[in-house]
Hints:
Blueprint: H1 2-25, E1 32-36, E2 45-51, E3 64-69, E4 78-82, E5 91-97, E6 114-119
Antiparallel strand pairs: 1-3, 2-3, 4-6, 5-6
Amino acid sequence: MSRLRAVALTLGCTAAALTMTMTTAHAAPGDTTNMCGSTLTPSGFVDVQWWNSAGCGSGFNPNSKQVKQLTGLPVGTVVNACASTWPPAGWTIVSSFYSSSCNYSAVPSFNNNSWQLKRVS
Length: 121
């Protein structure tokens, strides 16, 4: 019986992982998705907000994030993003600033933690 439980748990985790991958892979330009902070930000996305959620564990560290799909947005588009991930290719950092929604550390400071990004190519 315990072997059956292990197989069921493995299949459930695999299905959840595929669902998360498929959700972000089919996102339209500008769409946002919420995920646990321990999950790597997918290619073409940037982090736009961090917070604490019981659904992603416990502790004092922000453990949940919202990511935004930048792939497909037109040249000249400007977006604000957390400095917790680098901008995708074709995007440049225009300025940096502090945002309370981008505190992704257990010991936040008032230092710049966000960027204004612009699509250049």
